[in-house]
Amino acid sequence: MSIAGGLPRAVDRAQASRCEALQIFTKSAGQWRARELPGDEVALFRRRVEETGIHPVVAHNSYLINVAAAVPALRGQSIAALGEELDRAELLGLDALIMHPGSYTTGTERDGLRAIGHALAGLLKLRRRHRVKILLEHTAGQGTNLGHRFEHLAAILEHAGGSSRIGVCLDTCHLLTAGYDLCSDAGYGDTFRDFDRIVGLDRLRVFHLNDSKKPCGSRIDRHEHIGKGCLGLEPFRKLLNDPRFSNLPMLLETPKRDMPALNRQRDVDPWDARNLRTLRRLIRAV
What is the distance between the alpha carbons of residues 107 and 71, in angstroms, rounded to a whole number? Predict the structure, then answer.
């Protein structure tokens, strides 16, 4: 949900849209700098979360952060920014910070995976008393992006010392375009057997439910409305009725309605409402 108008407004929008879980950015996703969070805004945000019973509430980190970067200056800036985002999430009482692992740019894949793991280990060591978790988001694999293979996630976890404070977020669009065939019965079964074998289902904390504009194996990250893309409805029907995932939050990142700036304060986005209705109709519809 948008945080336009202040962080508590995201909770208002989630409640109006009948959400049970919520994802936000705690700052602009496309900027390094973050405004300081006033104490009264933090207190109101936490109170609104408690009042609504929305749980869990998680944040997504800035798209600029790349702790896998081979350039020392960019990696250092990214580690500092990620640390700041962890501190903001902790201040707000969030359950987790979801992050894209990063891109190895001019380095190597192996070095990039090692750099991510070591960065996370160092950040968590400095925040021993924090309760907020880090969730590695599986990616589509565009360019030199890391995290599009389950083996990448396992390697990062190993380099981070296997910390129990690191989990995984799986995105349905990213899975498909990274080459994991969720559409067939065999592909769906193989995908989660492989994930359990390589990473472990106990590491899975959140799903992002997004259809895909691009086909399986394209390695292009383009989200589509539920049932309107290359996934269709069946993979979502399976996920929503899979007993292994019955207690996991599932979050939409589907496109928003393109509305004039003056109308963006409205609480319920029509496309969100439609996508949520579509998903809820699939529950137990087996």
Answer: 9
